[in-house]
Amino acid sequence: MMTRSSETRATLAPGIVPAHVAGMQPVSRRGALKGAAATLAAPALPALAQTPTASPPPRRLDQPLFGAVSWTLGNGLRVVLAENRRAPVAAHYLFASAGAGEDPAGKSGVAHFLEHMMFKGSPNIPSGAFSHTVAREGGQDNAFTSRDVTAYYQIVEASRLPLMMRMESDRLRTPLIPADELESERGVVLEERRSRTDAVPRGRFREAFDAAMWGREHWRGRPLIGWEDEIRAITRQDLVDFHNLHYAPANCVLVVAGDVREADLRRWADEFYAPIPTRPAPPRNRAPLASSAPESRIESRDPAVRESSFLKTFAAPSATWGEKSSVDPLEVVAHLLGGGTGSRLHKALVETGLAVGAGAGYDGDTVGVGTFGVYATPRQGVETARIEQAIEAVLTDLVQQGASEEEVRRGIRQQTAGSLLALDGLGAAPRLLGGALAIGLPLDFVEHWPKRMAEVTRDQVNAAARAVLADPKIATAGWLLPA
Amino acid sequence: MTDTLFGVELPPRRGFSVPIQVVEQGGITAWLVEDHSVPVVSLAWAWPQGAAADPVGKEGLASISAAMLSEGAGDLDNVGFADALRDEGIDLSFSGGRDSFEGSFRTLTDALPEAVRLAQLAMTRPRLDAEALGRVRARALLASRQSLETPAGLARRAFWEAGFPGFSAGRLSTPDSINAITQEDIRACLAAQVTRGRLLVAASGAIDAAGLRRLLGELFGALPEGTLAATPPLPALASFGITQRPKAAPQSTLVFGQDGLLPIDPGWESFQVALRILAGGGFTSRLMKSVREERGLTYGIGAGLDLLFGRAIVVGQVQTANASVGEVWNLIRAAWREMAANGPTEAEVADALAFLGGSLPLQFTDSRRTANLLLNLRQTGRAPEWLAGRPARLAAIDRTKVAEAAARVLKPDGLVLAVAGEPVGL
């Protein structure tokens, strides 16, 4: 995920140097629900003087996680409210249902460049005034671009929410994209590319890996930030066209979380967002996949690398593509295969001393094809072939023998046990709800995830594992090695 | 405060206060921010020392010792311990920092007894199995070597090595030092470190004072009293000028800094305002405007105050294409010089104060963040009342005070720089 800027924290207590280069963690629905919500950048509040001392009754599995409400404005803008009265703070997120996957052919980087230029003014808000105003009000603002969405957000004291809505709706309607600021911002984007990729051997490898697996010019194989030569070629008109096409109200989702009443939000949404003229929402118009990976194997030797890494990725169903009912079972597969200590890959590679680390991951909250990956970092001196053999043995065993009932039940329990921790903050709700709606999924996809997971069966898990891992049509294996 | 902005009416802010309760049990005190709206409890605790006590040649000992606490305890081996935590969705972790040793957990209230049991078990009966040490050591070696793959990793390391040669703040772990660490070293480190002495605790979430008091007894009551020594103070940051680490890469990382102002200094908050205007916080600082917004020379630049070993050090970082390193370094020093000589404008001070005051509610985010903040305040030596007094202290700051603090502390000619890459123009 690309962001406008890596995020910083205001410090009451010093001792923390702002992480200007650390960047923001990509957030997946399941990652957050599994209890990683605190890796989210956005805050929420505890402890007010008048909080009641009695604990609320325990929640049941069949209750919606956030209890969000949703409605649609006349121009098609979807509005979501996840109320949370812990403290006088509101998080305000606007998602456009367009990301790097919508970059025009040969112009990778347009969605992300536009995200940067959205801070350069709109008819009523001068360039730079947006972030200046948010800061002056004590808030935080930023934006991020993924393959599927571009999102803009502010976190402010709750009484400042209408001001945020005023400013955000102004640039949603008409960003200025001033020509005389284009080249300096292009420089910023190119520096961002160097910081994330060109100066980082593991970044270079990930980029080469995706290009090998999906094709250098395919929407799935291009870097989110864009190829350098294509970033250099982007024109102002490209950005204007992208905004005109994709930032239609009906192609956007507004999510507010925090200490906000529904009636107030309805009034403000009507005042600030409803007057934006209706435009048609464009369909996602992405190229189909090739029948096989352009390169099923790569080896990158890099003089900057000190430690080898192995990665193998399989094309997989997602919540919007292929066998959609496999999405929850594949989460279980990823967990029991490589979800940390105790998983099959950990036992076979880490406990045995072959690897420093090994695991698996699944990303199925995507527009179009999802990905299932396994990875390992060998201990020094261990032959690469031994690592691959050990991984293949684990995968073959899972495909042929399947997972046990106990493994499946425990995997589900461990993945969902911490899901209520997503309520501990104002970051998880807008990112999960907005992220789902913006790729065409219903609210329930997030709200009832724990319940759905609890209903996943061993047969579903084993069938999903076989479908993805046995005889894959699109899969690539890659080694990053010291030169 | 403006009444309307861009046509939007700005009502007065709602009042916000964070009552901090101080809870004591058996000589151990904890700060608590209580909130029952979400069934979650976060606890964070810390001892001084950490890596400051690493013997010469065994750098990395505190960090590895901390990692070993999550690798099995009592009857639970590493897998059993990890499963016990994850079955209940408990996040428990320990870390060995540069001058502190810390533990924390976040858990749903239903699982609080189990979180306390496992954390207590980890601190009192860690297994320290040889196989587990092998895995933890391999991870540490990997991290140590990987950190040298990028200009950023090299430059950060170079800054501390050059800034505090011969002191633990400048002695960072190497493959040799990591390989030299034995089980006996870890046992000795934990015995000295994990005690009741000098322990600081902070809590936030769905727990009341009585519950926290019980928890303190269960969690820490069995620890030995301990005789943790005070960490020896550091000297001033060495004036090493510019140190370079060559690295074939299209972009260089610059880490720059100077000595800062200690939190006990009466001018500390004025200096905090000056530093925010010059180099802190998001998109509004002078450095961000000059280097990023106006010239497009970086993705991000900023500096903050780092506190360790009783010293305060201003540390900043920026990454820029090799060809622009000289220009960026000149811009940094020019901004430093201008702020030291002439201070901020009235408008800049008003903006910075508005941000610092207005952002108070946002600082108390989720329960884990709140607990960490309380712990940081304690580590900084603040009293519980410090927080409540903050708005009044900010209100008393004006341009003159900020300019004075800037002139007193900022040393444009004393800025030191560690740079890695293939920089041009230095």
From TrEMBL, chain B:
Alphabetized InterPro entries for the sequence: Metalloenz_LuxS/M16, MPP/UQCRC_Complex, Peptidase_M16_C
Gene3D superfamilies: Metalloenzyme, LuxS/M16 peptidase-like
Domain Peptidase M16 C-terminal, residue spans: 181-353
Pfam families xrefs: Peptidase_M16_C
Protein's UniProt name: Insulinase family protein
Species this chain originates from: Roseococcus pinisoli
